[in-house]
Amino acid sequence: MTDRDPASRVRALLDAVRAEGRTTLTAPEGKVIADAYGIAVPDEALAADADEAVAHAARFGGPVVMKIVSPDITHKTDAGGVIVGVEGESDVRAAFAEIVANAGSYDPEARVEGVQVQELLPSGQEVIVGAVTDPTFGKVVAFGLGGVLVEVLKDVTFRLAPVDGGEALSMLDSIRAAEVLRGVRGAPAVDRSALAEQIRRVSRLVTDFPEIAEVDLNPVIATPEGAVAADIRVILAEEAPKERRTYTREEILTSMRRLMRPSSVAVIGASNEAGKIGNSVMRNLVDGGFAGEIHPVNPKGGDIAGRKAYKSVTNVPGEVDVAVFAVPAKAVASVLEEVGRKGIPNAVLIPSGFAETGEHALQDEVVAIGERYDVRLLGPNIYGYYATWQNLCATFCTPYDVKGGVALTSQSGGIGMAILGFARTTRTGVSAIVGLGNKSDLDEDDLLTWFGEDPRTECIAMHLEDLKDGRAFVAAARATVPKKPVVVLKAGRTAAGA
């Protein structure tokens, strides 16, 4: 980096932009960031009037590019605010007047700070380097062919930020038109190291400053001598992203071990009435042969499935590893408070009626209670789960007892039941079948982490509609794939499917 303390310079600039209520940086502000992080851009200067524009152009020598500078005009070309190849005093003066007039016609209320006079870059291969904030994967860097080709060909590749030099170089080879960069039909190859360095520095910038929502270097002119961004656009996020609670690998394995190998299970909402979910869960646990303790919980007490029923889960003696909820959605929060006070580490939330039906506040309340008491939540809106080697059938579906080495997970209850039916018909042995539902807490990366270590699991098959935390999933997959195959069926790739 070209500055001894680039982060402090950028921090001061971003704070100033925020203080003005802006989210889009001007070109001179983008230049400050580029210089701080060593992102190569052409020499340039801001002209407040035509005389200054003439002086700057004369200093650069040769033709220049002139661009409007306004915090209110993001797309300068659309506003007629860019003129390329201006040379000579009279043309510079004329271009200055034209650009300012065009900006006034485009947006009469726009604040105009002046005109940027920029050194004209030599011709070369136009590419795009950028970074965006993906709701699933966070900061992602992009590389592809630039200029108009980026819209026509959409030849772009992505990586999670930050990337190192090797990953940045791999991006150059990941686009379909990679050979263009190596030189075709007599054209020289571009400076690949310089281009990769632009990618790496952009990725470091957005990693250091999460509030930067988007960076766009388009075009970057790549030549045999280097790679220089003709334009840099920086946009800040409207609000800071909500931080998700994270768990260490050991914390995940500890809670998952008690979920998948429990010694004691409580069924909240257990019932003797046939047809009720609480009755089905109790019967499946008992008939499935689970050797651990099974505690029915029902406000009426009595006996359920031949076992003493407790009026509250807090009355259950000893430690409980898992609480399976078979109560209406609106009762879940209050009962989860009791589960938390009891110190039960896992809650399996079978009920529907949460975020999937628009009840986001209700689901948020449940998640907050779980976090407060360190209770991990599976679901809600699921069929439950099976751990066949434990003879555990914590679900309202029928028992499944064909043991094998494949762990199955599904986000969709319907798909999960279809997979279960197929497995039963074909006698395909499984180590576990787990429903994820709304993924209010436990999700695919928790399961990947567990099944990656589970000695009974030899292969992991996952049905996913989305990823709650793409980075955590990638990390878990990278740790698991060298040891066991992971097969993912990604649903919802079309608009109709989503």
Task: Summarize the amount of helix as a percent range.
Answer: 25-40%
Per CATH, which architecture of the largest domain?
3-Layer(aba) Sandwich
Distance between the termini: 43 Å
- Low-confidence stretches are none
Count of alpha/pi helices: 15
Content of β-strand = 15-25%
SS content category = alpha/beta
| CATH homolog superfamily of the largest domain | NAD(P)-binding Rossmann-like Domain
Brief digest:
This protein has 498 residues and is α/β, with parallel strands linked by helices.
Q: How would you characterize this protein structure?
A:
The protein is an alpha/beta fold. It has three domains: 6-119, ATP-grasp fold, A domain (Dna Ligase, domain 1), CATH 3.30.1490; 125-236, ATP-grasp fold, B domain (D-amino Acid Aminotransferase, Chain A, domain 1); 249-490, Rossmann fold. The protein has 15 helices and 23 strands. It has helices at residues 6-19, 27-36, 50-60, 89-106, 149-152, 165-172, 178-182, 192-208, 249-260, 277-287, 329-342, 360-373, 413-426, 444-453, 470-480, and strands at 44-47, 64-69, 82-86, 114-119, 125-134, 138-145, 156-160, 212-223, 226-229, 232-236, 264-268, 293-297, 303-304, 307-308, 322-325, 346-349, 376-378, 384-387, 392-395, 403-410, 430-435, 459-464, 486-490. α1 (6-19) packs antiparallel against α2 (27-36), α3 (50-60) packs across α4 (89-106) and α14 (444-453) runs parallel beside α15 (470-480). It is elongated. The chain starts with 5 loop residues before the first helix and ends in an 8-residue tail after the last strand.
